[in-house]
Amino acid sequence: MTTEPIPLRQTIGLMHENEFGKFGENMKTMLDNQEGSARSEAGIIAMSMFFAGLLVVAFTTNPIASGTQIGERAPVFSGEAYDGTSWKSFQFDDLLDMSWTWNATEDVPWIAVEFLDTDCGHCKNAAPDMATWSQEFSGVNGAPNVVFIAIAVEFVAESSRAEIVDFRTQYENNFLFVDDLDEDIAKDWDVLATPSYFLVQPDGIVAWNSGQATNSIGWDAKEEKSIPLNGFDDGYVQLNEAIVQLMMLNGGE
Amino acid sequence: MNEYAILSIHGAIILFGVLLMSPLGSSISSIFHNKYPSTTTRRGEILSGMIFVCLGGFTVSAQTLWMHNKLSEGASVCSGNSILNCDGLIGNIAYNTDPFLGQPWGLVGMVAFTALMWLVITIAKDPMSPQTQLFIKAGLGATIAGLPIIGLLVSYEIKEGLICPFCTTAHIANIIALVGFILLAKLHDSNDWASDMKKQISKHSRK
């Protein structure tokens, strides 16, 4: 004789419904426990796998966040840049040397990034200083070696590439001017006002950010921690002061 | 070790799972028959195959998280002149985190495959539970929800003109898991879900 098998659960359910007494109730509890136990065991296995994976990643890497706060990895960008003769394509990461370390003996340049608007008064006032500093920190005769880049945005009034070229010529800012009139790079770098300055290590880590905190902290690449910087005159740290203090500290010139 | 050698390990785990889920599964699963008798059934073959697929998806996701971290340190982990390039995608801050929580996609993948693994193991451990259908539906829902996310990530690849082989492997694992849950749903609706138990009950009733 062949019988259609009745699932065990249905049988127990019937026993329970037909008041089979304590026995049916106990069987039902047992099955419920079995379900809970299966879920718990599966949970333990899955979570063990998850945390094992997470631990392996945590112990074998030392992640650095991307951003423009000190100690973070500066967002890379590309665009068209004016070098005094023509507009050419420019890649920020071409300037980086990922093998750089704080006590590197090679003369690898640091990168000073200025966000400016050709219509901004403060940017115009700072332009002569930028011209001086870009000459001063050219790596000649033991001076710090810094590549200066200006990123031209359009925060104040409508601007154009012609205005950028005129600004560069007028103030003798003889370094690259990147066209960011669409403000894509400014958004990535969280720049809300001009002028804004950043000093970036050769390996792409932001060492100083003019807009951060009290404007007097920098990144010590040797210790991998932020440190206070000293303003020479008024306590306010300017780009040139940050260059001198951080590059001397890290032996990177 | 070369990155593609490591990728082939993840791929092998997933491929083994696919073979177990395929019609070839009955012969391959024989190696598990003694220790795991449930693998003698079609249900067991699919579930064991899905465990391997989820494991492979999890390990490859963990590797992309590792790459994400290594790239942030300034290392190069999978770059080249060809279209196959992870650095340009996993290292691209515009695309390498999910837009809602800001977490690396590798971590999102790890969480997703851990959840799928939990569902699969729970079904495998108590296949006769009345909750099984709910778990299968949850698995289906989770893997289907993964499709638009995969679409978003593929759109990044198209935008950059690059293919990240590790990410693609994780995407494929999700799609295979989806197929697995569809197979489980069909099997659950058929009479073959508990064929092993039917045999046992029939044997007892003949006695």
Radius of gyration of chain B (CA) equals 19 Å
Task: Provide the spatial order of strands within the biggest beta sheet of chain A.
Answer: 2-1-5-4-3-6-7
Largest beta-sheet details of chain A: 7 strands, mixed
Question: What is the SS-derived class of chain A?
Answer: alpha+beta
Number of helices of chain A: 6
Largest inter-chain contact set? A-B, 36 and 40 residues
How many DSSP H or I helices of chain B? Answer: 8
Between the first and last Cα atoms of chain A, what is the distance in angstroms?
Answer: 94 Å
What pattern of helices and strands is seen along the backbone of chain A? HHEEEHEHEHEEEEH
What does this structure look like?
- The complex is a heterodimer of chains A (253) and B (207).
- Chain A is an alpha+beta fold and 253 residues long.
- Helices cover 36% and strands 19% of the residues of chain A.
- In chain A, helix 4 links the parallel strand 4 and strand 5 (176-179).
- Chain B is mainly α and 207 residues long.
- Chain B has one domain (3-75, 102-146, 166-200).
- Chain B contains eight helices and no strands.
- In chain B, helix 3 (42-72) runs antiparallel to helix 5 (105-125), helix 3 (42-72) runs antiparallel to helix 7 and helix 5 runs antiparallel to helix 6 (132-160).
- Chain B is elongated, with a radius of gyration of 19 Å.
- The mean pLDDT of chain B is 89.
- Classes of the chains: A alpha+beta (253), B mainly alpha (207).
- At the A-B interface, helix 2 of A face helix 3, helix 5 and helix 8 of B.
